[in-house]
Design goal:
Layout lengths: L1 H11 L3 H4 L12 H13 L5 E5 L6 H13 L13 H7 L6 E5 L6 H11 L9 E6 L6 H12 L5 E7 L7 H4 L3 E4 L5 H14 L3 E2 L1 H11 L3 H15 L2 E2 L1 H8 L7 H9 L3 H13 L4 H19 L9 H5 L1 H9 L3 H20 L3 H23 L17 E2 L31 H10 L3 H10 E7 L2 E6 L7 H13 L4 E5 L7 H18 L1 H9 L5 H6 L1
Parallel strand pairs: 1-4, 1-5, 2-3, 3-4, 6-7, 10-11
Antiparallel strand pairs: 8-9, 9-10
């Protein structure tokens, strides 16, 4: 008797994703624009005969299709607020309505299935106002099946409505897409998901911490269904008292706040301590891939924090550990964070391919710390010469247009207002000014200088230039301010109206063209061109 009662209880239980499936447009979360469009179409009586609902898994494509079917076939409709109590509404909810037919295209992909469906569509609705075909994962249909649908989609009977759902719109033929109204369901943002999960937990007589709800929201990656499945598991695992530790253990994650000390050890290139922390994460249940993914998230948070991103866009653990983030942001710079990011991305691939993910993680940490140490040694400045070398000697110098090698950096940092250590030898050429700007992380300004400034004369801290036609009018002022900040001296930038001198970029192009011409005239090149006609000498130069 007890066994049969337990069986009955188990069979009557519905998972959260089904128990809390939206039944009206008001129940849908995070799809306000789509809901507004559908309501307008229903209210104005301008309803298309075919829809395509697209989006990632679990955002409500099939659910929206069912709600729309209820709106159309409700006995009080068509209406934007189906009653939920009439025979049609109840039958659609219980998946037994004769005129609302739902098909899984993943299992019924053939042309015969579509012909059967089209034949059924020729007849008017039995008990409802419309005959509605909901085809899920429509991109799985065969080419012949799509072709069979074309004529019906182009000239459908007035009582027939198609609703297609797909996660891969690009796999649907354009001939089908052009005959349908496309509706994109977007990913649900983490804050909306976390609030939704907290509400459902309350309705299930369970408690969930804000941090735990945020962790589940991030893990669900914008999918309501995925998140509800995780919440269901968490409630069961924790006996209805869900906290962050429970969710982290369940998902094989680590406490997000603990990643910041790990990042700090990476930044200071302390290999031993970084390895110790990573091993501790692993022993506490975090897998190597998650350690790297959380590290990437922290590096991204640090980089965006440096550029003043709104707190609303930052992860909750970053906001709660604001002091730690500020501390790490001050002791790091953008090129350093970019280098760490690139190494961590590489580590993800190595972990996936390695037979031992932990060993791959440890080797990636060693390589990363070693790289950062080498960068720190390279950037250390040598002993500075005496003050007598600070000012240039002799007459005014004509600026050279020979291009010196420039180290490329991806992202520029803004001009800092805090005092920095000044240099003792002033730049003597435009190329030295360019390298000086890059060395002090003024890469955006350096690129403008390279592209838009035509150098004329440089004498000490007085620079005479002309600007390219499309240059920023404030470029001279910005350059003066940056050089004064870097060198500790006041700079005068004298902007002339015009100059025949090339910009550094133009000079570089002229050098490349001259080298190219010289290479073409070389006997070895001529011989190679005869053996391999049509060869690209520029490609040979690059490789």
């Amino acid at each position: 008797m007890l066994f049969s009662e337990a069986n009955q209880t188990a069979s009557s239980y519905k998972v959260l994703a089904r128990a809390y499936r939206p039944e009206t447009f008001e129940d849908l979360i995070g799809q306000e624009q789509l809901v507004s469009s559908l309501k307008q179409a229903l209210s104005n009586g301008r309803l298309p005969h075919a829809f395509i609902f697209s989006g990632i898994r679990g955002v409500g494509k099939t659910t929206t299709a069912r709600i729309l079917a209820r709106c159309l076939n409700c006995e009080t409709g068509p209406t934007i607020t189906p009653c939920g109590h009439c025979g049609s509404c109840v039958a659609i909810k219980e998946d037994r309505h004769l005129d609302v037919i739902e098909i899984d295209a993943a299992s019924r992909t053939g042309v015969d299935d579509m012909r059967e469906l089209i034949e059924a569509g020729r007849y008017k609705a039995v008990s409802g106002r419309y005959k509605i075909f909901i085809i899920d994962e429509v991109h799985m249909l065969s080419k012949s099946a799509f072709n069979a649908l074309l004529k019906t989609l182009e000239e459908p009977p007035p009582h027939l409505i198609f609703i297609f759902a797909t996660t891969e719109t690009d796999k649907i033929p354009t001939t089908i897409l052009s005959r349908c109204t496309r509706c994109e369901l977007k990913r649900i943002d983490n804050n909306t998901l976390a609030k939704h999960f907290a509400d459902i937990a309350t309705r299930e007589n369970a408690t969930i911490s804000d941090e735990a709800a945020q962790i589940i929201a991030r893990a669900s990656d914008g999918s309501v269904r995925d998140g509800l499945s995780l919440l269901d598991q968490a409630i069961t695992t924790s006996d209805k008292n869900v906290d962050a530790q429970t969710v982290n253990t369940m998902l094989g994650l680590m406490d997000k706040a603990t990643i910041l000390p790990f990042i700090e050890q990476i930044l200071i290139a302390d290999t031993k301590q970084a390895l110790t922390l990573a091993l501790g994460f692993y022993k506490n249940g975090a897998n190597p891939q998650k350690i790297v993914e959380d590290s990437l998230e922290a590096i991204h948070a640090l980089a965006t924090f440096q550029f003043g991103e709104s707190e609303e866009e930052l992860p909750s653990y970053v906001i709660s550990a604001r002091n730690d983030i500020e501390h790490l942001a001050k002791r790091s710079n953008t090129p350093q964070l970019l280098a760490i990011w690139e190494h961590l991305i590489l580590a993800l691939t190595e972990i996936e391919l390695s037979p031992s993910p932990l060993l791959a993680l440890e080797m990636a940490i060693i390589r990363l710390c070693q790289t950062l140490k080498e960068q720190q040694l390279t950037s250390s400045s040598p002993n500075t010469p005496g003050e007598d070398q600070r000012k240039p000697q002799g007459p005014t110098q004509q600026i050279s247009t020979t291009i010196a090698p420039v180290t490329a950096v991806s992202i520029a940092s803004p001009i800092q207002d805090d005092p920095v250590e000044t240099i003792t030898v002033l730049p003597k050429t435009m190329e030295e000014i360019l390298n000086l700007l890059i060395e002090h992380k003024e890469v955006l300004l350096a690129e403008q200088v390279r592209r838009d400034i035509r150098p004329i004369h440089l004498n000490g801290t007085t620079l005479q230039i002309a600007l390219h036609t499309n240059a920023d009018n404030k470029l001279g002022q910005n350059l003066s301010k940056a050089l004064a900040h870097i060198t500790g001296d006041s700079w005068i930038i004298d902007v002339q109206t015009q100059s025949v001198n090339p910009t550094l970029l133009e000079a570089q192009k002229m050098q490349d063209e001259a080298l190219h011409a010289k290479l073409l005239s070389h006997p070895l090149t001529q011989s190679a061109m005869e053996i391999f006609p049509g060869s690209d000498v520029r490609t040979l130069l690059k490789h």
